Amino acid sequence: KFSAAILLYEAYYKQIDPTYTGRVGASEAALFFKKSGLSDIILGKIWDLADPEVVCCLSTHIFCYNHLLRKQ
Question: Most buried of 10, 11, 32, 58 (most Cβ within 10 A)?
């Protein structure tokens, strides 16, 4: 079940990083995650957890982790 979820999240990631650079900037990620319907406050808290080093971008793995957090 977990592996299937990761494959799904990787497919989502490819939507915002079609050339698969391995990094998605904060603005691109924000546009994508706002579609979830969560408030900006909640999304901000998730971002803080997903980007603790404040590099202002998400890798594929962190993007998937972000999705898992959003599901909680």
Answer: 58
